[in-house]
Write the structure tokens for this entry.
Amino acid sequence: MRIQDRAWLLSHPFRVFSVLILTVFLAELAVMTSIDVFLPELSEAAHTLLDATLLTVLIAPVLWFVVVRPLRGAAVEERMRADAIVSHAADSIVTISEDGTVLSANPAVERLFGYTARETVGRNVSMLMPSPSREEHDSYIRRYLETGEKRIIGSNREVVGRQKDGSAVHIELAVSEMATHQGRVFIAAMRDIQARWRVEEELRRAKAAADEASRLKTLRFRFANLGACRNSGYTQQELTGLTPLDLRPEFTRDRR
């Protein structure tokens, strides 16, 4: 069945139901008439058994081609589409069971952490975390399942992950959940923000250095002993009123 036909089937359930009811009615009518015409001498029990058998034989192919096969095809296509989206996503995506076991991992996980899907699936997701988060992760899930209190689920936060070689990587983490017939499944989407973190860290250091330099500018010498004069080359009168930056104009460069 073509995709357009499947779309029609899914979008017009009442019409499909009406067609099935009409088909069952016509098939039953045809079966009962045929039995009465061609096998009138059958007993009531045999008549009922033959009626049910013929009706099943006629209706089963209709159900398969009109309902089961299109729905199965639509489900397979939807799964393939979802798998393609996840596989080509730039973000690292893993699905996790209620006990913390990794159920699936897309190719981006290998690029971010260095682990292949084969190395992650079936293991605890805490393998992607440094200590102490690694040891405490299972208790986080257990507490959420018991209390329903959401700390990470449904929000984005910046965390530190652990790569295969043991090095740390800064990531942005978003966790969601969905209910399945096998229980709840958690979906973790992780984005590499290492480059952004480095820039922000440099900005923080620069701001700290600027604040320190600004503070030093407000400090002025009110007294200088002979040792200070000897080390600096200034007289006591020259040192009075100067700031530490006046003695070391390269100070801010060293601090940066």
